[in-house]
Amino acid sequence: MRISARADYAVRAALQLAASRDETPLKAEAIADAQDIPHKFLEGILNDMRRGGLVLSQRGGNGGYRLARPAGSITIADVIRAVDGPLVSVRGVRPPDLSYTGPAQSLLPLWIALRSNVREILEGVSLADVASARLPPDVHALTDAPGAWANP
């Protein structure tokens, strides 16, 4: 599975907003500088997140962006879906819409299982969890598994 630059930047921007303690909107430039994200690219990402109902934007001198809901109610999956669409697809097709024949028939349940596991992790972790460095125990258990950090 690949996490696109767009999804990575979106999650990092959302975490920057989640870490903002006051209700003052953050300017896109400030988010871009804090997370080392190209400003113009970030503007498009923030617009997608706004259309997805994750952030609110405010115009004017005191304008900027803030989360539309509490950070604890926005999952990492929500952010990725807002900017990249479905979490798991094969050639741009969602697994339930695929069909295989012959020896490849078993691929469909494999892709469904992969999607299920990705959903379980990304839907089970909120922006608040990551921003506060309190990842769920099951995520920590996966990172502690032998070989988790190794590249085969």
From TrEMBL:
Record-level GO cellular component terms: cytosol
Keywords: DNA-binding
PROSITE patterns: HTH_RRF2_2 (PS51197)
Keyword Hydrolase appears in the UniProt entry: no
Residues passing through the membrane, by range: none
Classification via Pfam families: Rrf2 (PF02082)
Gene Ontology molecular functions: DNA binding; DNA-binding transcription factor activity
Name this polypeptide is given: Transcriptional regulator
Organism expressing this protein natively: Streptomyces populi
